[in-house]
């Protein structure tokens, strides 16, 4: 592994183009309605093959996140002006417990696993987004606002429907795109109801390799953006 937990500058490895477990890559999101990257999270590859990319976002990881131009956290801005006020980005740390992120190739969502302290499993989180676009240093996507929480008892509920509606009002998503996102959400709900992968695969019992160092955020975290269709 790279010294000091640095993100490796490697091509997607091997003849099949997959990263080896323990590789450090970036998981990034492009801003909605723009071309710039506004979220970057260094992660460690857990598994990468034709069926699944699984990565670990460790506690304390330095990340990039969007904030308003005056430094106000986005979530503190009233919803009516949250997506219209000027923004910038800032470096910060991922506080709390870590997150395991799972994504299947070509699927318009990823599934994140959260734990409370002491590895008490909390919930799955379905993040609706563009299918991940791979590049030499990681994966890129665009967030679609709408999400789903899935609980250990298999119950579920929609999240951030208010943000989804506001994004549409502010012109960040047209009717055609919104219909696609809703359809993706319904497809994810069908997977939840049938308890298909990855919910059925026991990932809540997974634990990170204790030898893994926390990856560092590179200075050129916004390099070589992969093309992601909107």
Automatic annotation (TrEMBL):
<dbReference type="InterPro" id="IPR035930">
    <property type="entry name" value="FomD-like_sf"/>
</dbReference>
<dbReference type="InterPro" id="IPR007295">
    <property type="entry name" value="DUF402"/>
</dbReference>
<protein>
    <recommendedName>
        <fullName>DUF402 domain-containing protein</fullName>
    </recommendedName>
</protein>
<feature type="domain" description="DUF402">
    <location>
        <begin position="79"/>
        <end position="196"/>
    </location>
</feature>
<dbReference type="Pfam" id="PF04167">
    <property type="entry name" value="DUF402"/>
</dbReference>
<keyword id="KW-0378">Hydrolase</keyword>
<dbReference type="InterPro" id="IPR050212">
    <property type="entry name" value="Ntdp-like"/>
</dbReference>
<dbReference type="GO" id="GO:0016787">
    <property type="term" value="F:hydrolase activity"/>
</dbReference>
């Amino acid at each position: 592994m790279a010294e000091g937990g640095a993100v490796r500058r490697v091509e997607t490895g091997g003849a099949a183009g997959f990263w080896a477990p323990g590789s450090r890559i970036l998981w990034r999101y492009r801003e909605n309605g723009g071309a710039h990257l506004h979220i970057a999270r260094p992660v460690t590859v857990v598994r990468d093959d034709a069926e699944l990319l699984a990565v670990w976002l460790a506690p304390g990881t330095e990340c990039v996140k969007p904030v308003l131009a005056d430094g106000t956290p986005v979530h503190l801005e009233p919803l009516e002006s949250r997506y219209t006020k000027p923004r910038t980005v800032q470096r910060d740390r991922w506080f709390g417990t870590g997150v395991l992120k799972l994504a299947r190739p070509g699927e318009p969502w990823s599934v994140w696993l959260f734990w409370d302290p002491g590895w008490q499993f909390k919930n799955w989180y379905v993040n609706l987004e563009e299918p991940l676009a791979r590049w030499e240093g990681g994966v890129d996507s665009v967030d679609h606002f709408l999400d789903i929480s899935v609980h250990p008892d298999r119950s579920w509920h929609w999240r951030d429907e208010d943000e989804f509606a506001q994004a549409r009002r502010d012109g960040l998503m047209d009717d055609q795109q919104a219909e696609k996102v809703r359809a993706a959400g319904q497809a994810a709900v069908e997977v939840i109801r049938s308890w298909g992968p990855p919910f059925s695969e026991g990932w809540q019992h997974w634990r990170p390799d204790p030898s893994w160092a926390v990856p560092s955020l590179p200075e050129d975290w916004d390099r070589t953006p992969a093309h992601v269709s909107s």
